[in-house]
Hints:
The chain is of the alpha+beta class and 400 residues long. Helix content is 41%, strand content 25%. The chain has helices at residues 17-28, 40-46, 101-107, 145-155, 157-174, 186-203, 213-223, 275-290, 305-308, 326-337, 342-362, 366-387, 394-399; strands at residues 6-10, 53-59, 65-74, 77-80, 92-93, 112-118, 128-140, 178-182, 229-238, 245-255, 258-266, 294-299, 310-321. Strands 1, 2, 3, 4, 5, 6, 7, 8, 9, 10, 11, 12 and 13 form a 13-stranded mixed sheet that branches. Helix 11 runs antiparallel to helix 12.
Amino acid sequence: MARLKRIESVAPEALTAEDIAAWEGFTSRRPDLIGPYFDVRYVMDIGQSVPDAFIARLYDEQGQIAGYLPYQVRGRTIQPLGAPLTDYHGVIADDGFVMDYQLLLRSLKANRLEFMGWVGDMTAEKARTRTIEAVTQIADLSEGYDAYYARQKSLHHKFYKNVGRCQRNIEKDFGGFDFTFEMVTPELLQWVIDQKREQYSRSGMHDVFGCGWTLNLLSQLAKRQDEGFGLRVGVFRDTSGEEPVLVAAEICLMRGHYMHFWFPAYSEAYHRYSPGILLSLRIMQHAAALGVTQVDFGAGGEGYKHTMTSPARVCLEGTVEARANLMTVMADAFVALSPVARDRLRDIRLSLQRRLRVIRACETDAKGKRDAFQALFRRGMSRLRTSAPSPAGPANDIAA
Length: 400
């Protein structure tokens, strides 16, 4: 069993042919590292766009390379390379490799490792670890699309009855939407990003594309034309008028028989037809014919995913810290003293940590950080005012 002994950091473009061969050997022996995020091509492509991007070469006691860890530096924090866009990550090494996170943090001069979608074992000696589990949602197409659809429809009859109704309304009102599955062009990418940014604005979530480098990351990936790997997009267009109109698009990240749904977007004008859900189903029907056997909807998230998928692998979200900080000590003390507040405190802390993690990942200059933190503070104060009880107290609610 190999154990971490030494770490050497290099830029993604400095990976050698020997590194690439070793990386591909590790992923080929680890069935849990199946997705495109663990492909060395993904790491090398996005490394050209991510600020402060590095690959840690992990050496064992014999002085041999025993693994790799792609990461980005944000102050004294290290994050997955490409966060917050990279949905899955972990140590690229053989099963059983013993990772020393205290050594990792010390070697990289970091106080904290933070992550979401961590795949593989997460044990940390002499380091403070906080993790929660999430379950990936997978659509199993191994028996073909028709078998998949019949299985899901039998489990969620009401949902698929509504799917059929939406499809009939589209046929009646537009004669159907035109479907294509194609490479990601700059125009399609920009349309998806515009829809996502409008969505972030409506929801009050941080705009992950406002910083610029995240859009460059996707643009760089879109340039790769490898067969069976890279970005693809499924598109619905309304062709009932004089000019085709984009209705919905879903950017997917592919690797062989595995597809990850990454960025769905649709025009609000077509909202009542549920174009996003219908497009996902149409993409899966097309992908199954190409040999795709698994479609990953991500971990957790929207309720509709559970009607279209089955729970699969466990992944982790959390932090590893070199030492306890004041916030975690106070949180632990409060939970210990107030068991009734445990769930509420956990939810508040988790929501705040996720928002801060996204801001820290995206914003790499002082102005971007300042503007993002101010927007987060304003949103928090607004929510506090909205949720505060009225001066009249509970009687007001009863009267209403």
